[in-house]
Amino acid sequence: MYKDGKKSVFGQFFKKLKEGCNLFVSAVVIDAEHNLKTFKNRIMPEFFIAIVFIAAFVLLFGLFYLRNRENMAMIEKGINPKEFVSRPAPYRNLKWGLLLVGAGLGLFLAYIMHTYVLHIDDENPVMYFSLIGICGGLGLIASYWIEKKQTLDKE
Predict the structure, then answer these.
(1) N-term to C-term CA, the chain
(2) pTM for the full model?
(3) Counting C-beta atoms within 10 Å of the first and last residue's C-beta, which end of the chain has fewer, N or C?
(4) How far apart are CA 63 and CA 150, in angstroms?
(5) Are 145 and 103 within 8 A, CB to CB?
């Protein structure tokens, strides 16, 4: 600064530069917010659609690739891969039946507890999912015991 209170040419230049930078930064922030809104509204749906198709392609490619590797390993060991495709599963229906009965029983118990025992007014999905999982697991354990008993009786 000079004695008369005026700023030097450099001081005025830096003051103008600072004001310009502040305007530039605020314009960048506004532009970034606009670009973010544009990205969310226009690009996000296409981005997620592309991700879904890529994931589906990778999944299908992985399944076929792994199946092919498994078949090649069986052929190297001298085993016919087509023999393993048509193996019967004698207790499959029992397993699925007991699993679904257990899940239904868990859902029914959760409803009874929610409505009549606990008298809860709001929804409690944790109780429903946990009882479905617990009773479905108990159904699978019962299926295992029945299968084990049947195989021991055969021997």
Answers:
(1) 106
(2) 0.46
(3) C
(4) 34
(5) no
**Tokens 């590797």 belong to residue:** 69
DSSP codes, 108-139: HHHHHIIIIIS---S--HHHHHHHHHHHHHHH
Sign (positive/negative) of CA torsion 88, 92, 93, 94? positive
Separation CA 34–CA 30 (nearest Å): 6
Beta-carbon count within 10 A of 134 CB: 16
How many whole angstroms separate alpha carbon 69 and alpha carbon 90?
A: 27
pLDDT in tens, 113-138: 888 888 777 777 888 889 889 999 99
Tell me the domain boundaries of the chain.
Answer: 1-87, 88-148
| Conformation bin of residue 5: beta by default, left when phi > 0, alpha when psi is -120 to 50 | left
Average pLDDT score, the chain: 77
| C-beta atoms surrounding 139 within 10 Å | 23
CB 136 within 8 A of CB 149: no
Place of tokens 């004695």: 3
Q: Are 92 and 71 in contact (CB under 8 A)?
A: no
Q: Are 86 and 138 in contact (CB under 8 A)?
A: no
